[in-house]
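Appendix B. Chain record.
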Amino acid sequence: MKSYSVDLREKIVAAHLEKNISIRKVANIFSVSKSLVQKLVKQQRLEGNLQSKPRGKPQFSHLTNADIEPVRIS
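Structure tokens predicted for this chain:
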């Protein structure tokens, strides 16, 4: 599932905070879930932004630093 744009996220939060519309009504207006509206309001309050979080597993190497050094020298 694709994440919502930052513009839409800002409109959702603004409708709730600035226009004092209930979370349930905002969810109905924008055709999103009530939990998404709650999550976005909380994210705005705690982090100060509405950027989407990275999805999926973090990428990491199975090589240790000792394994990487010979590769760099070669």
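Further analysis of this model is presented in Appendix C.
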